[in-house]
Here is the input.
Amino acid sequence: MNILKTTTLGLALAGSLAFSGAAQAETFITIGTGGQTGVYYQVGGSICRLVNRGSSEHDIKCTHTTGGSVANINGIRAGDLDMGVAQSDWQYHAYNGTAPDTFPDGKFEELRAVFSVHPEPFTVVARADSGIETFDDLKGKRVNLGNPGSGARATFEVVMDKMGWSTDDFALAAELKSAEQAAALCDNKIDAIVFTVGHPAGTIKEATTSCESKLITVDNDVIRKLVDDNAFYAMATIPGGMYTGTDEDTTTFGVGATFVSSSNTSPEVIYEVTKAVFENFDRFKKMHPAFANLNEADMIKNNLSAPLHEGAVKYYKERGWM
Ligand code: GLU
Here is the structure.
């Protein structure tokens, strides 16, 4: 009996020592990304892989989650996430407090930019049998708006407002996550997908190869005015031939994906994460085809409206980029 007690106590003590030793040595970080078949998930996964390769030197261990831009920014603000991927329009609005419907808590002054990533065109895919030929034809159809928390959904709401549409103008206004939308399209539960995403994206490949569907041009006076009025939007092109069923270039508008954090996340951690990406930049660019055209000079300045994080600045200065 006594022996057993001593042994149990001894084990418990050894266990807690081992645990506290590990807790002191390791820093766990979480990156907010997007649905598994989008590109954000690949951004977070790729960054985590590069960070985790260097864990023996810096003791940082990285994991990633799946919410989308708005959820990521809110998660960073709440301290649940250390960093995340976010569309440039929502980075701008979060920092400046200019979208109270999306960010009711007002200006997120601690928001910090780390670098920008790939371009994200506002992408509309319609079933070939849906009768949708132009963007205006979406009215009256069954459309996936995207899940609340995604930047894509929030951007579509901005566009809907400018088009004078409400959810009542659609035969069905679905709120599916990006990972569910291709199956819904090809099961004929919806006529079209609207998703702001980098290309090529798994979800768009799935939607255009599992059934007959095509990309729709998004270019009219409302869109042109939106782009003219807001520096974080630009006209964009999705190259013809990238997806089955769409051989011509598709004109639309878009934003940029960016990597953001908070001034509450330690400069040492951001320095190591930034370093892991740029010291292994060729490897990073090969991790997803949407990263192939990235270059360092653009990534540290384009599409960033919040101030750069001091940990990132330290690395950029070391490289002589600033
Ligand atoms: N831009 C989308 C969003 O913020 C996510 C795109 C992706 O998952 O790659 O919700």
In short: The pocket of glutamic acid is lined by residues 34-35, 38-40, 68-69, 87, 120, 150-152, 178, 196-198 (CB under 6 Å).
